Amino acid sequence: MNSNDELRDLWQQSAGEPARTGEDMLTLVIEKTRKMDRQIASRNARECLAAAAVTIFFGWLAIWHAPTAIERIGWTITALSGIWIAFYILRFGKGPGQPDRTASVMAYASVLAENYERQIRLLRSVKYWYLLPIWVGMAIGMTGVWLRLHTPAWVLAVKLGSVTATFAFVWALNEWWGVRYLKRLKAELPQSN
Amino acid sequence: MTEAAARETFLRLMDEYQGALARLASAYLSDPADRDDLVQEIATAIWQAIPRFRGESSERTWLYRIAHNTAITRAARVRRKARSEAVLDHDHVSDAAGIDEHLIRQQRRQILLARIRELPAADRQTMALHLEGLSHGEIGEVTGATPGAIATRLSRIRERLTHELQR
Question: Is the model's pLDDT at A22 over the cut of 90?
């Protein structure tokens, strides 16, 4: 037996009996397809609901609980940020969708690599389109509250510091963890040679 | 294509290729639960693609394209774990070698799979397709590589794997 035959022989023995019948597999994949559709629908709904919650809450603050112009400006910017973020995610976040799995592996890997690149760019720019508008709105709003109530400066510093720290954490998660993870996935793709 | 026809096609494909899909999964992942998940995901992708199959390529190359494309997406997420397990497989094999013929064969199979999993993705796919009996032309249809590149690649991988098995 030559080495090629032996390799093939070993390979052919490497899987036992199929784990399930074709009918069982069909039932499973139909359920899985439905579940995936539900997950996509629920993820889109969650994104829109989160944006709506930010807009409604800060809009309500801006209209009914902002006695000064500075507060109104701050909460309005934050409320509009919610709409802006939802628009941005829906417009740029989804990308071209899943590449065609019936394409050749090289073609598929190339589209997948482009998708990862786009997601990396999106995560790297989170600080500008996601965090900055909300942070600016909240900073202005909190400054307005501080000016109206005449509380000590450290109160404003602590509040702004907390918000900034939270945003910095979100930024770090995206920039370091998210981008590194996507780069690792991209590096695993087959390279054309 | 009607749903009944799609169901019939799917059942036939599973009947014919489920073993091959399980072997393909083992070229990507070492954990049996991960492999089973991968086979399910490939089957789901096949089910979703059946209505769009127009016969531009052979059914076999079409199926392997879906399978490998699904595998590279999913396996990348669990590859680190798979790598460490592959090393464990090999250690276990070395300690127990020489007990009896059946065991040795089983161990050689494990070494082969572990070494295939360690190959770069393009090499792994080429070798898995070759071991499944696809011609160079068919491998080219699946991977997008030229027949010349496939021949060179196969010769290099075969030599390396044979050498690993002889150690």
Answer: no
